Description:
Keywords: Hydrolase, Metal-binding. This protein is α/β, with parallel strands linked by helices.
Amino acid sequence: xxxxxxxxxxxxxxxxxxxxxxxxxxxxxxxxxxxxxxxxxxxxxxxxxxxxxxxxxxxxxxxxxxxxxxxxxxxxxxxxxxxxxxxxxxxxxxxxxxxxxxxxxxxxxxxxxxxxxxxxxxxxxxxxxxxxxxxxxxxxxxxxxxxxxxxxxxxxxxxxxxxxxxxxxxxxxxxxxxxxxxxxxxxxxxxxxxxxxxxxxxxxxxxxxxxxxxxxxxxxxxxxxxxxxxxxxxxxxxxxxxxxxxxxxxxxxxxxxxxxxxxxxxxxxxxxxxxxxxxxxxxxxxxxxxxxxxxxxxxxxxxxxxxxxxxxxxxxxxxxxxxxxxxxxxxxxxxxxxxxxxxxxxxxxxxxxxxxxxxxxxxxxxxxxxxxxxxxxxxxxxxxxxxxxxxxxxxxxxxxxxxxxxxxxxxxxxxxxxxxxxxxxxxx
Length: 428
């Protein structure tokens, strides 16, 4: 007797006709034709069951603050930072908590159950850290929230930031962040990478730095981050986020840098929606795309997780909480349209990001947490193409969100009465 049985599911690895049995919040069996009773049975009908979506790069302290105190007229990264600097002194814990929890409602409805959020620690009041630590506890039953101590203004650029970052870690923020390219000089940026990696090594923590989020091909702090990763023995615990300067670097230097990252066991977290929106702003034409070298990183064996970064905040007026929007943009922006490419990008919003965050019990194997999403699509390529309805969102074997199937009614003589978007892929 199982608590939950999902019948006739397609899995991300290409297997079809699979049943998934759940007992006590854990996956107990994954095989075809499970002959057993269950308290609840879900007929997948050949549709895709995926592990939860995972967002390895987000700013939950800023989410849903679009228009406060005003709109970003230029649409640039620097105006967004300036706007956040205006808003920050007015932030209250109550407002931060309310916006963040509302966003988590949206995220869960999209099958997103784990988020790594950077928390700005540039204001020594640390109201952002207090608020997000409270949010972490509120949403813990249904969403895993991992927090990064992030000095948005630069580790060395403002008074009290060095001390504030340490205090945030003492409070329970569990990842060390940084932004070396925003320090006043390249030398300060390199010093900040060293100092922050030393803190992570001393405390046994992970590192996730905004690194070279610029169009400048000479912004090369990724190299410093790789070197300090090896120096402090942080292999497998360090991620570089954005890395957009790499889209402007010459190929010879990139041929040196990518092996250094692979040697250091670094992960990369591009953010396709934001990178496409914010980068290349000084270009006329030709105009750079703004994304780092995702296919080349994957070829080198560098773990790549795709992040959403922002939803309706000073930097980005768009966003839906849907990681498949992120993968969909990546398909187009870095021209990864093959079947294998789309599988790799689906992994980048699921299993890769889970590994980068160090999630335990994640996946669709026996013994994993029974956290799953049933999508109105038949394979991962179709999931990215359609960004389909999440028919069921399951947490520890319990349905916590569901959406009716998307079906259009046609009133056309001689044509079918209904259109199901999941039925249009060749071979379906």
